[in-house]
Amino acid sequence: MKKIINTVNAPAAIGPYSQANLANGVLYISGQIPVDPATGKLVEGIEKETHQVMKNLEAILTEAGMTFKNVVKATIFLKSMDDFAVMNDIYASYLDAESYPARETVQVSCLPKNVDIEISMIAHQD
């Protein structure tokens, strides 16, 4: 059975999708962009954008009763690979080195609302 996960502590979906779906103990989190859920506004600059995306993901994980330790897979979309090092340091600061998820990072030509970063995750309940 599928359960929709939704929280006001992450940006509302801007299309026909859910923030996340929980199915058979696996949480599928939709790609998060750097929208501040309190204001509905985009944050700018790769550092602030990465922090905001990670906070949005954390809010969804929390709503599902999980943490970043439950994450088994992450997909990162960057508008420019020139931002990789900065993004990578910030991304790592939210994670436990003992439980890093699998991951890929790809450069894309454009993202929703023309942001610089989007991250989706898959987590698993213990």
Automatic annotation (TrEMBL):
<dbReference type="InterPro" id="IPR035959">
    <property type="entry name" value="RutC-like_sf"/>
</dbReference>
<dbReference type="InterPro" id="IPR006175">
    <property type="entry name" value="YjgF/YER057c/UK114"/>
</dbReference>
<dbReference type="GO" id="GO:0019239">
    <property type="term" value="F:deaminase activity"/>
</dbReference>
<dbReference type="Pfam" id="PF01042">
    <property type="entry name" value="Ribonuc_L-PSP"/>
</dbReference>
<protein>
    <submittedName>
        <fullName>Endoribonuclease L-PSP, putative</fullName>
    </submittedName>
</protein>
<dbReference type="GO" id="GO:0005829">
    <property type="term" value="C:cytosol"/>
</dbReference>
<dbReference type="InterPro" id="IPR006056">
    <property type="entry name" value="RidA"/>
</dbReference>
<comment type="similarity">
    <text>Belongs to the RutC family.</text>
</comment>
